[in-house]
Amino acid sequence: MRNICMTVSYDGTAYSGFQTQPSQNTVQDYLEKALLRLTGEVIKVTSSGRTDAGVHSRGQVINFYTAAKIPIERWCLAMNTLLPADIVVSGAKQVAMEFHSRRSAIRKTYRYTIRCGRHPDLFKRHLEFYHPTRLNTDAMREGLLHVVGTHDFTSFCSERSTKLSNVRTIFEAKLECDPPDAMLESYAIHIYLTGSGFLYNMVRIIAGTLIQVGEGKRTSEAIRTILEAKNRAKAGPTAVPHGLTLWEVSYNEDALTLDCLSDL
Predict the structure, then answer these.
(1) Is residue 51 domain-shared with residue 79, that is, in the same domain?
(2) Which of 43, 179, 204, 218 could form a disulfide with 35 if both were Cys (CB 3.0 to 4.6 A apart)?
(3) Same domain for 146 and 229?
(4) What percentage of the chain's residues is helix, strand, coil (to nearest 5)?
(5) Do residue 118 and residue 63 come from a single domain?
(6) CA 120, 121, 124, 127: dihedral to nearest 10 degrees?
């Protein structure tokens, strides 16, 4: 038996999220169907975390156990021939049996993208939230500073969350702007949040609130006040899902190392 780890990228537009559901239209469903065809085994995939319907991934991490003898260097090519074009696996490696893609993770980074200006980008319409007027990015950056550190994020968490604690640590929060597109007269704003873990809809609620800061409807200092309130009603709306991407999941190198086997 082997424990195989892979990175999965996907455009979440067509899917009902990552985690398997009765509809069988999830990323996990397609991964497990491909594994069944490839190995003849009914395999349960474990992921670093769930993503909702319409949310994308650049760096989702999965692991699964298999008795298949397929050489490690052939897994990705074989899987990608069986997967839809909007799901791609990469970076396959064999890891220690105790490796768990969710429990072994030490930090995750999400990116939320807003296109701001006169015209949307047609080719990125599934990856960006379009905002037709300019936003005050300096104020948004100042607001982001308040979420860094260890806080109770109840105000930035869906009331549907079932977590026992809403305390999370944000290691880094930054806002970057792409150069303006002269033809479209618009530009992309990227909000990056890196933390120990995230609550249900946490990144999207932070993004929705920051958009209000950028619009001048709230001050930068309001982010701190909202955090202290521990009341979801005090925060802004939940931003639309298609602007969100699971950007990267990080692990200690020891967790991903197995002697005599190399990464692709």
Answers:
(1) yes
(2) 43
(3) yes
(4) 30, 30, 40
(5) no
(6) -30
Q: Is 187 annotated as a binding residue?
A: no
pTM of the model: 0.92
For the cut 90, the answer to whether the pLDDT of residue 162 exceeds it is no
Measured between alpha carbons, how far is 33 from 43 in angstroms, rounded to an integer? Answer: 9
Residues 91 and 116 in one domain: no
Q: How far is CA 202 from CA 80, 248, 260, 263, in A?
A: 32, 16, 40, 33
DSSP 13-45: GGSS-SS--TT--SHHHHHHHHHHHHHSS----
pLDDT for the residue numbered 262: 36
Provide the annotated active-site residues: 52
8 Å CB contact between 246 and 57: yes
Range of the domain at 28: 2-103
For residue 14, how many C-alpha atoms fall within 13 Å in the half-sphere facing its CB? 11
Written as one string, the DSSP assignment of 170-193 is EEEEEEEEPPPBTTTTEEEEEEEE
Rg (CA), the chain: 20
Two tokens at 123? 């080719």
Task: Note the pLDDT tens digit of each residue in 90-104.
Answer: 999 999 999 999 999
Q: How far apart are CA 152 and CA 164, in angstroms?
A: 12
Task: Tell me the C-alpha distance between 74 and 92, whole Å.
Answer: 9
Q: Which residues contact 5 (CB under 8 A, 6 or more apart)?
A: 61, 62, 63, 91, 92, 93, 94, 95, 99, 101, 256
Length of the chain: 264
| Count of structural domains, the chain | 2
Whose CA is closest to 16, among 6, 5, 30? 30
Q: Give 25-34 pLDDT, tens digit per residue.
A: 999 999 999 9
